[in-house]
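If you are new to this repository, start here. Below is one unmodified record pulled from the training split, so you can see the exact layout before writing a loader.
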Amino acid sequence: MSVLARSFYRRPTVEVARALLGHLLVRSVGGGLLVARIVETEAYVGEEDPACHAACGRTARNAVMYGAPGHAYVYFTYGMHHCLNVVTEREGFPAAVLIRAAEPRWGQERMRAARGLGPRAAPTLVASGPARLAQAFGLTRRHNGLDLADPRGELRVERGGRRRGEKIGVSTRVGIRVGADRPWRFFLEGNPHVSRGPRAK
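And here is the target side for that same chain:
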């Protein structure tokens, strides 16, 4: 597999959010690999987007969003969950795509253990939701700022693709109180690993 180049992310965030569907999130850990196919994303665009973490301007927490595209922005929320984002657009403009859900492909036993799931738990409980995904991959603030375009990086996005007949669904973003009317959530229609949310537009 080939790692997605930085130029892939140096585009409008909404475009990147759609384009990420079907590609593979990969983490090298403990001599093995964790691999999951991205099936759901959300776009957050600039200081004018009230739901974007940059709406308050640049801070120590969101500084990575102002950096080069293709880096991981990992934040901690509600005092208990981590979430993974991919920085997009040009350097100096704060924008990112939240990876909301993924379909496990490799290293599922390790992902299940990280999630505290037993062998009979449904596969859809592994990474269907941003907090579940981060937990399955063992992601924390330690991974904030990692270069996802580095072929030798611990965390990266490799080229995958959509299957024949797969369609992209679109809806408003979920789990936010402001900017919830923007149709910037994208997902692979019919995929059971997509998290719950508004119906497609």
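Two things worth knowing about this chain: The mean pLDDT is 95. The longest helix spans residues 108-115.
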